[in-house]
User: Fold these one by one.
Assistant:
Number 1:
Amino acid sequence: DAGYRILYDPAVAAYHHTNQTGRTVYGEAYWKRNALNKSRVGWRLLPHPYPITIMLIWSAAVLFKTRKPSVVWEVWRSLWHERRLLASERKPIGSKTVQYLKQIGARLLY
């Protein structure tokens, strides 16, 4: 929606060097951080119902991976406390962009 165009070529591969230096998020914290970040991006940029499906699916993933409902509640509690900020920053992409993302097979539901 900002006027940029992104080209995708499935023949291009990006290889990233794995370096554990500086990686401080493991286990429960890793899944909690992932769920929070995916949900924040969804609430800021995606039209409904996608932010809701992202929250639900990532909450299920956190529960499955950690086996701790308390971690899921921490995610939801954090998002609840950030609700005004997320609402003020909310600028969902347009329907043409959603259509394009669906056309190229982008993950919108989660």
Number 2:
Amino acid sequence: WGSGSVLEHPEQLDEPLRRYARDCAGGRAPRCTDLGFALEKDDPEQAASLYQRACSAGDGLGCNNLGAAVAHQDPARALALFEQACQLKESWGCQNRAVLQAQLPDGGQR
């Protein structure tokens, strides 16, 4: 995508993903998560940006997916994102929070 976002250049996407991009740009947070998931393998940075947008707009799955994307580099941030997902009633966030807490030496406590 170069330096641009798929939301700025949706014409680069096939039609189903263009619809996700339009919906995401229009404020439908779950569509940002869907688009991020579709792009994750080929463009993880773009996917993370879309997950962040979704999470900031209250989509628990977006928070969970962003947490998974950053877990290896920043476990503390991932834990916070999983907690946010859990608070938003996303069961994957609750599960991932518990798994990550069990893996951290101090359980994620500071």
Number 3:
Amino acid sequence: DFVEALAEPPMREVFQKGHAEWGFSLKMDSGKILQGSIDLWAELDDKVYIIDYKTGSSVYVKSAFEQMQIYSNALKKIGACSLNKPHILVAIYPLEGKVVSSNANSAKHS
């Protein structure tokens, strides 16, 4: 399987230690409630991975990273993960066999 065989992110470890379909609710400074569901996230030894599976085109990867940045901020604000480890945002496009990743809060996507 394409996804399970990925070495970066280390999907086997992410599946073992991670949280799938992780729902959250967060009160924003504005008083509004932000609710969401993260496809998959895991805090490993040196990084926090936030993974979003996409069935659409990777042409829209910028939107995927904007969404995952919100997830990263929510995880930090809720206190669900380390603030000191880098957060790696990963968009997986299984239909294209493509993986695109970025550091959270980074303007560049690789």
Number 4:
Amino acid sequence: VSLDTPLTDHADATTLGEMLEDDSLRTAADTLEEKDFKRDIAEAVARLRSDERSVIQALYYDRMTLQQTAARLATSITRVRQRETHALKTLRRDKMICRWCCPDGVSFKL
């Protein structure tokens, strides 16, 4: 079956190829949206307290374990978890992030 095959017998019939989505156009729009989303996330993380930002950086950007993060920050695993939990709650309430994730722009429910 060719992409140029008409879907009906009419002279001006749409072809199979015309019905397929153009992935290159969708990808360009998705790429721009993804850049905006990543920028907004980075800005929201930058607004966190420095101790919380350090935990988020280690766990989510540097892909460290809780134990490695605790060692890097010279603190306990429990304290790392507490800082992570508080930071994630703060990020869930951030208006820049909510506009991406919440249809009504309201923060996530915990």
